[in-house]
Recover the amino acids of this structure.
């Protein structure tokens, strides 16, 4: 027996429908006129049967056909069954699509979390093996050269490590930055990574990795800030003991914090950055220059300019290009000359940036 061609999944065949119709006729006794039966037939959508009032379905059951008048209620029941079945199909299709999207999002999130966890796990164990990162620059002599250029060491965390060396004929830049390091780590490797280079100038950029930990240890905020101040002062003094000019940069601003980092972030980090930068400006003195890099990168809200931002913490090449323009002007104003191990003694206020050039 052929099945009703409305929805393939409908568990009714033609004989069952006709038996159902017969029982309903006996029960209700109400008769539709011939136009109503055709209208209901079209709503149900069973094609090819009952095109004319006198036709009957080819089932062998006489006296019951689409062309004869039938109870209105009967066809409403049949139509509702079909519509309900279609609604259920749509519901399940939507539910399956939603579950598929949730599953895909869950898989993507787990991959992201796994990659981040792997990265931090590797960093943790590398730090255990080499807490100060001494092995990163084991042979300090490989990048030095005997020339009349003033030797400048870029020293600090990833913001120093990413610093693109400016193209010039007067200064030899040597990068000794290591990503993810705190101020205590940079202080611990200063002797190994800076002293042997015999620089005339040491540029110090460090501190954001200290301040990031405030979100994880809010109860230790004051000690974190205090320790950072002490370590910055010690780095300045170590540079001066070498006979070099220490250029201390203020801590760069941060950009908008993305969603995945927000659980591990705090507004206190930005407040502490401003607090430490105010302290850095007090360090200016004999052979100590403060380079206000925060001003180079910060917009009116105190966030890093979008044009200079690689991510929420790091600067892109365009940002470093702007920073280098300011830096070369600062270095030229110092008027230092390379003459053995002596440098000019100077008293210098913090370097002020003209925001019209930014």
């Amino acid at each position: 027996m052929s099945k009703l061609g409305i929805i393939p999944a409908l568990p009714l065949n033609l004989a069952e429908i006709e038996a159902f119709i017969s029982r309903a006729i006996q029960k209700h006794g109400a008769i539709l006129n011939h136009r109503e039966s055709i209208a209901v037939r079209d709503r149900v959508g069973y094609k090819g049967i009952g095109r004319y009032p006198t036709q009957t379905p080819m089932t062998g059951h006489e006296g019951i056909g689409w062309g004869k008048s039938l109870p209105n209620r009967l066809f409403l029941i049949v139509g509702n069954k079909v519509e309900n079945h279609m609604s259920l199909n749509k519901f399940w299709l939507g539910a399956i699509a939603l579950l598929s999207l949730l599953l895909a999002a869950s898989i993507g999130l787990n991959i992201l979390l796994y990659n981040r966890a792997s990265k931090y796990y590797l960093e943790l164990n590398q730090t255990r093996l080499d807490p100060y990162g001494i092995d990163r620059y084991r042979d300090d002599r490989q990048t030095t050269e005997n020339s009349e250029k003033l030797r400048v060491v870029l020293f600090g965390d990833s913001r120093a490590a990413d610093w693109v060396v400016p193209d010039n004929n007067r200064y030899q830049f040597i990068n000794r930055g290591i990503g993810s390091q705190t101020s205590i780590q940079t202080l611990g490797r200063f002797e190994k990574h800076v002293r042997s280079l015999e620089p005339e100038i040491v540029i110090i950029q460090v501190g954001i990795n200290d301040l990031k930990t405030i979100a994880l240890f809010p109860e230790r905020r004051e000690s974190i800030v205090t320790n950072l101040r002490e370590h910055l002062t010690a780095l300045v003094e170590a540079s001066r003991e070498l006979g070099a000019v220490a250029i201390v940069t203020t801590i760069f601003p941060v950009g908008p914090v993305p969603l995945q980092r927000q659980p591990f972030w705090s507004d206190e980090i930005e407040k502490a950055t401003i607090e430490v930068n105010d302290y850095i400006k007090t360090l200016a003195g004999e052979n100590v220059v403060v380079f206000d890099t925060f001003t180079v990168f910060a917009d009116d809200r105190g966030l890093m300019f979008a044009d200079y931002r690689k991510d929420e913490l790091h600067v892109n090449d365009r940002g470093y290009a702007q920073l280098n323009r300011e830096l070369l002007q600062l270095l030229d104003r110092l008027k230092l000359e390379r003459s053995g191990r002596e440098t000019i003694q100077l008293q210098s206020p913090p370097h002020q940036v003209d925001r019209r050039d930014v």
About this structure: The CA atoms of residues 103 and 109 lie 10 Å apart. Strands lie at 150-156, 171-177, 201-205, 245-249, 288-291.
